[in-house]
Amino acid sequence: MKNWILPAILAVALIITGVWGYNQYQLNQQYNTHMENFYQKSFYELVGNVGSVESGLAKLMVSGDRSQHIMLLSEISRQANGAQMDLGQLPISHIALDKTAKFLNQLADYTYFLNKKVSQGQTISVDEMDNLGKLHENATKMNKDLNQLSSELLTGSGSWGTFVSGARTEIYEASDDLYTEQFVNIQKTGIDYPSLIYDGPFSEALDQKHGTELKGTPVTEQQARDIAIKFIGNDRVAKTEKSSDGNNGILDTWGFQLWTKGDADNPIFVSVSKRGGKVVNVIGQHKVAKESLSINQAIEKAKEFLEQNGYKDMVSTYQQNFEGLSTINFAYSQDDVIVYPDLIKVKIALDDGNIYGLDARNYLLAHKERKIEEPKLELEEAQKLVSPSLNITSSRLAIIPTEGKNERLCYEFKGEMSQKRFIVYIDAMTGQEADILQIIDTENGSLTI
């Protein structure tokens, strides 16, 4: 009768062991996932910090303003220290990290030293600027290699977790592992830098209401619908429906969905201001089968479209393509001065030349005829205030928005340094360096100069 007891006990023990083993497996999986996420976070923060350091050094070499030097040196030192911390959290051998960490440490210390010097009223010497140039070269190489490693991680099958699993002793040696090998390559060679131009200069919307475009009489829903249809084209529109309105107190709008002939699946959203009857936004989709317009032709067509709808004296400042649709930024020009606050974005198809997108909010909120004062500085005087490291290719007067939501008359200098392009703004009244932008070209477009 008792012969069943031992097998039963063994069965229960086996079940308990199995449950315990499964729980341990689950805990181990959770731990591995946690560590993988931790390593990934540290690595991508490292990539971001090193990229910011490279950009900061580039901006520093272009800047000729002492207050900018103080701000940039402080940021570079902080970002370099942050990169060191990120590096120390990765499961890479000390041999592989040694020179990389040393470079970041030296960079952080050197920029901290220069920041104290400049804060005390002194300037960066020629030799110190040369040193910064060498540091920038190394940072550029490191940034390139880190981004290459990042791409390999995204396309490969390895992970940080499997790299450290099993407590392999060889990870403390310079092995042929992808991660360690890449860091060894990196060391054979460290701020947010300018506002990097991916969406055109000064493309952010202005939350202010000082323009003259929205001081017209109120329009009814039907009037707004007619305006929307005319804007898209009476011959293009097949059907319209009421959509959501925009009511934010600054720029209230009527909203409509418009279907064009031959494209029943992709309605175009159009918003019209409730006061003045101005088209504020157009948002539409269009699949381009074959591009037939050149970029210059698209810019001309978009400019003609704006002129036909009452937007005169607009100058293209930026253009970018995506899947056969070209987004072009236009800024208002008054007396040969580019007025960046008065900005309109137009999206035009490169096959049929029709408009599928528009953002006129900046223009409508900011546009007015300005009394532009005579600059106190001549162009030649302002150009002398630009760093000699920048090879200037063009210059003109421009009105730019400030963070305090005011406007500033500046000389705009476009130029190149170390195969990178920058725009430097010098205040035409005070000679102060107002802003620096770095132009980032992509395969889909670039700044139009």
Could you tell me how far the N terminus lies from the C terminus, measured between alpha carbons in angstroms?
97 Å
Report the sheet with the most strands, covering strand number, pairing sense and barrel closure. 14 strands, mixed
> Which structural class is indicated by helix and strand composition?
alpha+beta
Overall 3D shape = flat
List the total number of helices. 10
> Which spans of ≥5 residues are poorly predicted at pLDDT below 50?
162-196
Q: What number of structural domains do the residues give?
A: 3
How many beta-strand runs? Answer: 14
How much of the polypeptide forms β-strand, as a percent range? 15-25%
Tell me the Rg in angstroms. 29 Å
Helix content: 40-55%
Instruction: Give the topology string: H per helix, E per strand.
Output: HHHHHHEHEEEEHEEEEHHEEEEE
Q: What would the average pLDDT be, to the nearest integer?
A: 77
